[in-house]
Amino acid sequence: MLVCRRFIHTSVSRYLAKSAVASTSSPLSTLRKKTGYSLSHCRAALQQFNDNLEQAEAWLHQRAQTEGWSRATKLQSRAASQGLVGIITNKNSAAMVEVNCETDFVAKNEKFQQLVSQVANSLLVNQTEKAKDKIVFDKETLGTLPSLDDRSKTLADVTALCVGSVGENVVLRRGIVFNTENNQLLASYCHGQVNSTSSDSCRMGKYGALVKYSQVDSTTSQSEDGQPLTSSVQTRSYPLRTICEDNIQKPIELSTYLDSEDESNLMHEYLNGYVYALPSRENAHDLLLKNISAQIEQQQLKDVHVLPMDIRVQTPDPVYIYYPGLCLSNQAPKIDQAITREPVVIVEIITPTTERLVLHEKSINYQRIPSLKQIIYVWPSLKIAHVDFRDEQTSKWTRKYYSVQDKIPLPQSFGNGELALGHIFDNMVS
């Protein structure tokens, strides 16, 4: 008769637990986690310096830098046609850099993306001529700038270290910095963004755009003959029909506009005394707005009201009255209501015919409305959106970007409401 017995000692689990703790807290494990270098290199460093972690780490960094430069020299003749564009902005300046590598696989590597972020931040910190509105950096100039993390090293040194890590040729291609003056604004866009970041971090993607523009001051601008110009005339570069022929020479009263609009078959907007007729909207425009309205109604959010599309938005003085794409409010619309002064969310559809008007005029005036918390800009052609958020405490505006798979959160006063960007484009013909 064959009898099998299994003996289990009560101290085995305790022994295994102790050994696990000992192994995780060993100098070799600590050094490997801290530096990210291979196990064999970390073991050799600890043996050379008798388990002194600080000396072993310094030796590893020095060796990696040397090997990186050696590998960078060998690989510099290989074509680097892939890579990322990095953009970072702050209150008064913005930087955009292009860093190239050999393959798209490395462009997705965390160490490569850390390099792009470090180069972009270093540009902002190291610029010495902040009085200049635009500073261009070529490949050679970029390499000589001190690194943000360790000013004893240049960006060329950091790049060589990245080459040793990813095993491909990496090139600092070019960079540019914009600085703003009074009454100037910065706008940026990163297409094909690969990282999810806050508005004050480095955004990275395949393509990038950085724009600096000036806000028109109607109190100081003058025409060639010395006559004052209003911002409405300057910012609308394409022809729009006015209510009356002499409106350009003589502003009209707000009451006159309101009376005329009630009797008109066309929609007109009032811009501090000047009235413009709106072009007719496209069918796709109305479809997108209906999809947005349907999403909000399905969520049955408390105290959220989608205002009818014929209700206009009025800004504080100077008075501008616009027809928004869509307006959300905490207050239910009244019978025969024509204007709201307390919108919470405004949605605008960006098309080639509305892009300049919305982004360069409407958005600036919308942000003067105290009750407004969000402005959502939907781009049907790109199937993306960007949203301007007002900070509850500082009242400053920040911008975030969303792709078709993302959901846009609505203000906290609307509960847990959100807009699924993909559903906005349902039934839309490309």
- What percentage of the residues does DSSP assign to strands (E)? 15-25%
Tell me roughly what share of residues is in helical segments: 25-40%
How confident overall, as mean pLDDT?
78
Question: In total, how many domains does the architecture comprise?
Answer: 4
The first-level CATH class name of the largest domain: Alpha Beta
The CATH topology of the largest domain: tt1808, chain A
Largest sheet: 6 strands, mixed
Shape: elongated
Distinct helical segment count: 13
Taking strands numbered 1, 2, ... along the chain, how are they ordered across the largest sheet?
10-13-15-16-17-18
The tally of beta strands, per DSSP, is 20
End-to-end Cα distance, whole Å, is 79 Å
CATH level-four homologous superfamily name of the largest domain: tt1808, chain A
What structural category arises from helix and sheet content? alpha+beta
Subcellular location: Mitochondrion
Main location: mitochondrion
InterPro entries: EF-Ts_dimer_sf, Nuclease_put_TT1808, Restrct_endonuc-II-like, Transl_elong_EFTs/EF1B, Transl_elong_EFTs/EF1B_dimer, Transl_elong_Ts_CS, UBA-like_sf, Uma2
Protein name: Elongation factor Ts, mitochondrial
Q: Overview of this structure, please?
A:
The protein contains 13 helices and 20 strands. With 430 residues, it is of the alpha+beta class. The chain has four domains: 31-75, Orthogonal Bundle (Helicase, Ruva Protein, domain 3); 82-214, Tetrahydropterin Synthase, Chain A, CATH 3.30.479.20; 237-277, no CATH class; 283-424, tt1808, chain A, CATH 3.90.1570. The strands form five sheets. The protein has a six-stranded mixed sheet with strand order 10-13-15-16-17-18, sandwiched between helices. A five-stranded antiparallel sheet has the order 3-4-2-1-6. A five-stranded mixed sheet has the order 9-8-12-11-14. α2 crosses α4 (53-75), α4 crosses α8 (155-166) and α6 (110-126) runs antiparallel to α8 (155-166). The longest helix has 23 residues, at 53-75. The protein starts with 11 loop residues before the first helix and ends in a 6-residue tail after the last helix. Residues 6-23 and 228-247 have low confidence and may be disordered. This is Elongation factor Ts, mitochondrial. InterPro entries: EF-Ts_dimer_sf, Nuclease_put_TT1808, Restrct_endonuc-II-like, Transl_elong_EFTs/EF1B, Transl_elong_EFTs/EF1B_dimer, Transl_elong_Ts_CS, UBA-like_sf, Uma2. It comes from Adineta ricciae. Residues 256-414 form the Putative restriction endonuclease domain. Belongs to the EF-Ts family.
